[in-house]
Every structure is written in structure tokens, then in C-alpha cells.
Specification:
Blueprint: H1 4-12, E1 18-21, H2 28-34, E2 43-50, E3 53-60, E4 63-65, H3 67-74, E5 79-81, H4 84-87, E6 110-113, E7 121-124, E8 130-134, H5 136-143, E9 146-148, E10 151-153
Parallel strand pairs: 3-6, 6-9
Antiparallel strand pairs: 1-8, 2-3, 2-5, 4-10, 7-8
């Protein structure tokens, strides 16, 4: 079941969504594989601090947040990744690391990479066993994101 806050918010806003169950997984790429979703179609939420204020940066599972680009987009002096201990309390009904890509029920602004625009948004439902899929127009209405180009391909691991 999706996080209580997320479900309550989506239902109250009459947002159409579908739940997708999958085996327990912790990384976005692993989840995409288990749910048979391409990595560029699964949205992952990255918690950041923009000038000291917590926000969600939403990018495809196959990409990562370019902090310097997000800093420019936000017109900020400083953008840093939040640690799990820093953001855990902001998502009390979610499993650690399974934050949904909708910030409104948690009081957080959302930045979405432009590569996700126009596609159904599929993202963690607050657990490591379930995803939510929302049509783009409904997601945009629910999340009210700032849309910009701030994601880059993940660097290949050097062995």
C-alpha cells in the first residue's frame, strides 16, 4: 500500500494512479528491472538541500542529479545532497530511501528533469515493494514541479 500521506493526498486531489507491486528492491535500477520498466522511465527521488531548504529532485533511474545544474535552475548559492539521517523525519510514513516523487504531502518543492516530461510518472510509493504510476498531466497537477534540465547519465564504474 502506498504511504498514507501520499494515498490520502492523491485521493483528495482526484489523481488517477496505478499501484505496481514488485519484489523487495532498493536501487532504482534494480526496481526498474524487477518491474520491467526501462531505467529512463522510472523516476527516482533524490533529496537535496537548496540554500538550506529541503527539496526533491526527480530524475530518471538511469541518470543522476547534476548539482551544479540544479543550483543554476534554482537560482541558489548552494545545493547539496541530503543524507538519510537528515531527511528521514520528513517522510515518517515511508521506508528509508523509498520517498515518492510527489512533494506536496510532505511540504517539499519538487524539481523534475525535463527528460521525464510527457511520460507516465512511475516512482516509489513509500515502500521498497511498490510503485505508483500516474499519467504525466495528473502528476504535474499533483506535484506542481519546476521542470528543467539538470540530470546527467550516471558515470560508468571504474574497476
Amino acid at each position: 500500500m502506498p504511504s498514507a500521506k501520499l494515498k490520502q493526498y492523491l485521493d483528495a486531489e482526484n489523481i488517477r494512479y496505478t499501484s505496481i507491486l514488485h519484489s523487495v528492491a532498493f536501487t532504482a535500477q534494480e526496481i526498474a528491472s524487477l518491474a520491467h520498466i526501462r531505467g529512463n522511465e522510472l523516476a527516482k527521488s533524490v533529496v537535496v538541500f537548496i540554500d538550506g531548504h529541503m527539496a526533491l529532485a526527480v530524475v530518471p533511474a538511469s541518470k543522476q542529479v547534476a548539482l551544479s545544474r540544479l543550483k543554476t535552475v534554482a537560482g541558489a548559492q548552494n545545493v547539496v545532497l541530503a543524507t538519510e539521517s537528515e531527511f528521514r523525519g520528513a517522510f515518517p510514513d515511508c521506508e528509508p530511501g523509498a520517498m515518492p516523487a510527489v512533494g506536496v504531502p510532505y511540504g517539499l518543492p519538487v524539481y523534475v528533469d525535463e527528460s521525464l516530461v510527457g511520460h507516465d510518472m512511475t516512482f516509489n510509493a513509500g515502500t521498497h515493494r511498490e510503485l505508483i504510476r500516474i499519467p504525466w498531466d495528473d502528476y504535474q497537477r499533483a506535484s506542481r514541479p519546476v521542470i528543467a534540465d539538470f540530470a546527467v547519465r550516471m558515470a560508468a564504474a571504474v574497476l
